[in-house]
Specification:
The structure holds 2 protein chains of 2 kinds.
Chain A (H helix, E strand, L loop, with lengths): L21 H6 L4 H7 L3 H10 L12 H6 L10 E6 L9 H7 L1 H15 L3 E6 L4 H16 L15 E6 L9 H8 L23 E5 H13 L1 H7 L7 E8 L5 E6 L4 H6 L13 E5 L8 E2 L9 H6 L8 E6 L4 H15 L5 H18 L7 H12 L14 H26 L17
Parallel strand pairs in A: 1-2, 1-4, 2-3, 5-9
Antiparallel strand pairs in A: 5-6, 7-8, 7-9
Chain B lengths: L21 H15 L11 H12 L4 H10 L4 H10 L11 E6 L2 H4 L3 H12 L10 E6 L11 E3 L2 E3 L4 H9 L3
Parallel strand pairs in B: 1-2
Antiparallel strand pairs in B: 1-3, 3-4
Helix pairs in contact in B: 1-2, 2-3, 3-4
The chains are: A alpha/beta, B alpha+beta.
Chain lengths: 444, 176
C-alpha cells in the first residue's frame, strides 16, 4: 500500500474550461513551485527529485534525479534540456492530453528542471502529427514569455531561460532520445551509439537532459507538496502516480491516472476505468506498455502497472500503453500489424533491424494468408532472435532499442499463442476468417 | 546531335516561374530569420526540419528549388535538405492532392475497425491507399496517438477521431 492517499495530480484539470491557460493554471496554484524552487540551491532540487523516486515516463523508467545528476557540473559548454513529446509508441496517447489540456504544468516542470541543471535553452520536441497539441503548447509558451516565466530573468531572478517548440515530421524513431537529438540538430533520425550518454555529449555535443513530457509535469508537484508525500504516492522504487492509456477491445478506453499498485485487471475491469469487456467476450491478450512490450495472456493480469512488477513478468511498463485483445481476435493478424509498424519505422541504420523487420512482416503475412509452412515458425523465431533474443529484455543486436521493440512482440506472441500460429498453418487459412479484429472490429 | 555537359557542378535549369511572389519571399525571409535565432550561430543547419516545414506550408510540397534555397539559407548542401526531406514521411517530395488523408490502421485502431474504415474511404474517394489524385492523397499511416478514441485519421494534419461511418461522411462531404 502507498503511504499517501491516492489523488490524481497530472490529469486533475483535464476537460475543465480553459484548463490550458496561464490564468487557470495560476488559479490552481500554478508556478508556485517554480517560485519556491528559485529560492533553493540547484543541487538541492536534484537531490529532492532523486529522493522522490520519480522515474522517466517515456518508456525506460530511468530514475529522473539520477539522470539529472549525470550532467557534469564543471563543463564549460552550454547545457540543454530536450523535452521528448514524440509520443509515437502504438497504444500511447497520454502526453497529448498534457499538451492539450495542461501545458503549463509541463512548462513549470521545464523551468524548474532548467534552473536545477543550469540550462538556459530548452527545446520541446513534439511529433509532427501533433498539430493541435503544438498550437496549445505554443500558446502556453507565449504566455509564459509574457509573464516572465521564460526570458532574460525567470521570475525576476538572475537566470535566463529560452524555450522553443520544434515539430518533428513523422518518424517513430525520433522518440529514441539520441535520434531525437539528431532530429533537433536538423538531421534524419539515426540513433547514436551510447555511451557517451546525452547527459555528457548530447545536443550540439553539449551536456543534454532528455525528459518525457509527463516526467516534467510531475516535477512541480514534488517541489510543491514535498518529497515524502510524492514518494509516498508510489511504491518503494517508483514515486508518484502514473498515466496509463487503455485501448483496444474494452468498454471504456481512455487515459487514466492511477496509483502505481493498480493492476492490469483492475484497469480493464474496474468501473472507474475500463468497465470490462464487451458482452460475452473474455480477455485473450494484453500488451501492457506500448506495442513494444511483450504480450501477456489472460491469466497474467494480476500484475501492477509499475516498472519493477512488469520486469518480474519479463515485460515492460513502458510508456503506459495498455492494449486489450478479446478472445475473438486473431493473434497472427495482430502481430502482423505490429510487425509492419516496426518494418515501416526502422530507420535503416543497423542491418538486423533493417532486414529483419520486413522479413518478420513477410513471414507473418504468409502465415495469416494461409500460405504458411511448418518450418516458418522456427524461421520467424530465428529472425526475431537475430534482431534481439529474448528473454530477458535488452539483448538487442542493434544500436538502439527499436530492434528489441520489434523482436519482443514476435517472441512473446509465439511463446504464448503458438497453437494459434500452428492452427493457421495446419488449416491453411485464418481460423477467424474475415473477422480477425475482435468484438469491436466491425466498423459502422 | 550529341550534347555533352561541361565539367563542373550540375546546374538545374531555371524554373519557368520564380519560387515565391515578392510577398511570399518577404514572409519566408522573416520566418527563416526567426527560426535561425533559436539555434546557436554555428548551428544554422539545426533549423532544417522547421525550415522545410515552412517551405511546405507555403508551397504545399517541397519543390527542389525550394529545398535548395532552404539549404543555402542554412549553410547546408542541397543533399542534406533532400536527405532530411526523404527520411520523414510528412514531407512531400511530390505535389500531393489538395487534401492529404492519413488513416491510422495500427493495432488499437484496427481493433476498432480501422481496416474497414480505410476500405470504405478507398471506395468513397476512388483511390487505393498510397494513391493520389488532384483532390486527395490517401495514405495508410502509423499510430497517431489517438488509440483511446479509435479509429482516427488526419486531413492535412487536422485530427479527427472516434470515427463512425456517419462522421466520416459528414467530414468528407463538407470539405470545400
Amino acid at each position: 500500500m502507498a503511504a499517501t492517499a491516492f489523488e490524481p495530480i497530472i490529469s486533475s484539470a483535464w476537460g475543465k474550461p480553459n484548463s490550458w491557460t496561464m490564468e487557470e493554471y495560476r488559479r490552481r496554484g500554478g508556478y508556485k513551485a517554480l517560485e519556491k524552487a528559485l529560492e533553493m540551491q540547484p543541487p538541492q532540487i536534484i537531490d529532492l527529485v532523486k529522493k522522490s523516486n520519480l522515474r522517466g515516463r517515456g518508456g525506460a523508467g530511468f530514475p529522473t534525479g539520477l539522470k539529472w545528476s549525470f550532467v557534469p557540473k564543471d563543463s564549460p559548454k552550454p547545457k540543454y534540456l530536450a523535452v521528448n513529446g514524440d509520443e509515437s509508441e502504438p497504444g500511447t496517447f497520454k502526453d497529448r492530453y498534457i499538451l492539450e489540456d495542461d501545458p503549463h504544468m509541463m512548462l513549470e516542470g521545464i523551468a524548474i528542471a532548467a534552473y536545477a541543471l543550469g540550462v538556459h535553452t530548452c527545446y520541446v520536441y513534439l511529433r509532427g502529427e501533433f498539430k493541435f497539441p503544438a498550437e496549445r503548447a505554443n500558446a502556453a509558451i507565449k504566455e509564459a514569455y509574457a509573464a516572465g516565466i521564460f526570458g532574460k530573468k525567470v521570475m525576476g531572478k538572475d537566470f535566463a531561460l529560452d524555450c522553443y517548440l520544434v515539430r518533428g515530421a513523422g518518424a517513430y524513431i525520433c522518440g529514441e532520445e539520441t535520434a531525437l537529438l539528431e532530429s533537433l540538430e536538423g538531421k534524419k533520425g539515426w540513433p547514436r551509439l551510447k555511451p557517451p550518454f546525452p547527459a555528457v555529449v548530447g545536443l550540439f555535443g553539449c551536456p543534454t537532459v532528455v525528459n518525457n513530457v509527463e516526467t516534467l509535469a510531475n516535477v512541480p508537484h514534488i517541489i510543491n507538496r514535498g518529497v515524502e508525500w510524492y514518494a509516498g504516492l508510489g511504491t518503494d522504487k517508483s514515486g508518484g502516480t502514473r498515466l496509463v492509456c487503455l485501448s483496444g477491445t474494452v468498454n471504456r478506453p481512455g487515459v487514466y491516472e492511477v496509483s502505481m499498485d493498480t493492476t492490469l485487471s483492475q484497469l480493464i475491469f474496474d468501473d472507474k476505468y475500463g468497465r470490462g469487456m464487451p458482452a460475452g467476450r473474455k480477455v485473450k491478450a494484453v500488451i501492457p506498455g506500448g506495442s513494444s512490450a511483450p504480450v501477456l495472456g489472460a491469466d497474467e493480469l494480476d500484475v501492477a502497472m509499475e516498472f519493477e512488477a512488469m520486469k518480474v513478468k519479463q515485460t515492460m511498463a513502458g510508456s503506459g500503453g495498455v492494449i486489450v485483445m478479446d478472445d475473438s481476435t486473431c493473434m497472427v493478424r495482430s502481430l502482423w500489424r505490429v510487425a509492419r509498424f516496426y518494418a515501416e519505422e526502422s530507420c535503416g541504420q543497423c542491418t538486423p533491424c533493417r532486414e529483419g523487420t520486413p522479413w518478420q512482416t513477410r513471414l507473418l503475412r504468409k502465415i495469416e494468408e494461409g500460405r504458411g509452412e511448418p518450418e516458418d515458425l522456427e524461421l520467424l523465431s530465428k529472425v526475431a532472435s537475430s534482431i534481439a533474443p529474448y528473454p530477458p529484455i535488452g539483448l538487442g543486436n542493434t544500436i538502439c532499442a527499436l530492434g528489441d521493440a520489434a523482436a519482443l512482440p514476435t517472441h512473446s506472441f509465439l511463446m504464448r499463442f503458438r497453437d494459434e500460429f500452428e492452427a493457421h498453418i495446419r488449416e491453411k487459412r485464418c481460423p477467424f476468417g474475415d473477422k480477425p479484429w475482435g468484438a469491436y472490429g466491425d466498423w459502422s | 546531335m550529341l550534347t555533352t555537359r561541361p565539367f563542373g557542378p550540375y546546374v538545374a535549369p531555371a524554373m519557368a516561374e520564380p519560387l515565391f511572389t515578392p510577398e511570399e519571399q518577404k514572409k519566408f525571409d522573416a520566418d527563416i530569420a526567426d527560426l535561425l535565432s533559436r539555434y546557436p550561430e554555428d548551428r544554422k543547419s539545426a533549423a532544417m526540419l522547421p525550415a522545410l516545414r515552412l517551405l511546405q506550408e507555403m508551397k504545399g510540397w517541397l519543390p527542389p528549388e525550394g529545398m535548395k534555397l532552404v539549404a543555402s539559407r542554412l549553410g547546408a548542401t542541397p543533399e542534406r535538405a533532400y536527405e532530411v526531406a526523404s527520411f520523414y514521411v510528412m514531407y512531400h517530395l511530390k505535389k500531393p492532392g489538395k487534401y492529404v488523408v492519413d488513416v491510422c490502421t495500427n493495432l488499437s485502431c484496427s481493433l476498432w475497425g480501422a481496416e474497414k474504415m480505410l476500405a470504405y474511404l478507398e471506395q468513397k474517394l476512388g483511390l487505393k491507399a498510397g494513391e493520389a489524385n488532384e483532390r486527395f492523397t490517401l495514405r495508410e499511416t502509423e499510430c497517431l496517438a489517438s488509440c483511446g478514441t479509435a479509429p482516427c485519421l488526419q486531413i492535412n494534419e487536422d485530427h479527427h477521431e472516434s470515427l463512425t461511418r456517419a462522421k466520416v461522411d459528414e467530414i468528407f462531404d463538407k470539405l470545400p
